[in-house]
Specification:
single chain, alpha+beta, six-stranded antiparallel beta sheet, 4 helices, globular
Length: about 325
């Protein structure tokens, strides 16, 4: 069992999402940074479908009452285990009685904590992801609270596996550094926007609004206007859809997005750049660059190939 001594700003259990229920109005939810989540799962020997604890900005303080193997990936939020710094992206053995704490943020926004064997959570509609607005999934449908106890599944592993000499790396065209332009493809209503708006998407700088959350990132910057008024029926939306409401300020839909939307979509964020956006804080700046749908698809396929290589290699150990 793990005892929650401090809950942190927003710590919730997430997996790859609750697929197949959008037609019933139930959002997919799931992790914001799939790359960090899958790496953490792989490092402790879990499948990618297991839940991780998504830790946002100010992390929790957790006391382990049993030995465990853990890994933390994603943002560097100053994690410590006892009196020592916890290395990122490494499997680490935790002794019974030790405390895992998060301190001062160094970089990024969201860290992912995986525990070997997985968390003992009750799936809801095939997923353990927390839907905060709906109040279900994860730990009682909410973020962690002080005094919570987290049950773990049994595992036979008591020592951390030795890190492999070489982990497959994501090429730079997949995992680009913070500050690099986010790649976008034209959205369904791209042609309905004024030429100045289409140009602004790739030439102007936007800033993440403090009103951003897991449902959507609101962007501050130049207003993007249509060539003429447009009435649309609500349609299904996806992770990374960039909608533009009447005020002209775009909204990038994120993991907890609504199931349908009626605002025009000027663009869609390339899948491989969703993790980079998920690690961007309110107040930080963003730039975009246009790519073709074919380029975005090739990058997504290349990322999947690296994941497969990682997971196949891990299975050999």
């Amino acid at each position: 069992m793990i005892e929650v001594l401090k809950p942190g700003a927003l710590s919730s259990f997430q997996d790859l999402g609750r697929s197949g229920y959008q037609h019933q109005g139930i959002p997919v939810c799931g992790v914001m940074d799939e790359r960090a989540h899958r790496l953490a799962c792989m490092l402790v020997g879990n499948g990618a479908g297991e839940a991780t604890l998504e830790v946002t900005l100010i992390g929790p303080a957790l006391q382990f009452h049993c030995p465990a193997i853990i890994a933390v990936c994603g943002a560097d939020l100053g994690a410590t285990l006892g009196a020592r710094a916890l290395p990122l992206a490494r499997p680490v053995a935790v002794a019974a009685g030790e405390q895992l704490c998060f301190g001062k943020r160094v970089s990024g926004l969201r860290a992912y904590l995986a525990v070997a064997g997985g968390y003992a959570l009750q799936p809801v509609l095939g997923s353990t992801s927390t839907y905060l607005r709906g109040g279900f999934g994860g730990a009682q449908g909410r973020a962690l609270q002080k005094g919570d106890w987290i049950a773990l599944r049994q595992t036979q592993r008591t020592a951390a596996p030795a890190p492999r000499a070489r982990l497959p790396l994501f090429p730079g065209d997949i995992q680009r550094p913070p500050g690099a332009p986010l790649r976008i493809v034209p959205g369904r209503e791209w042609a309905a926007f004024a030429p100045r708006a289409r140009q602004a998407m790739s030439t102007q700088t936007f800033r993440v609004s403090p009103r951003s959350d897991r449902m959507g990132y609101r962007l501050e910057g130049p207003a993007l206007h249509l060539s003429q008024p447009l009435e649309l029926a609500s349609e299904a939306v996806s992770f990374g859809s960039i909608q533009v409401p009447p005020d002209g300020l775009p909204i990038v839909l994120m993991a907890d997005r609504q199931t349908t939307g009626g605002y025009p979509r000027i663009a869609n964020l390339a899948t491989v750049d969703l993790p980079l956006l998920a690690q961007t804080m309110a107040g930080e700046s963003l730039r975009f660059e246009w790519v073709t749908l074919g380029q975005a698809q090739r990058l997504a396929s290349a990322q999947s190939a690296v994941f497969n290589q990682m997971e196949a290699g891990h299975g050999q150990h």
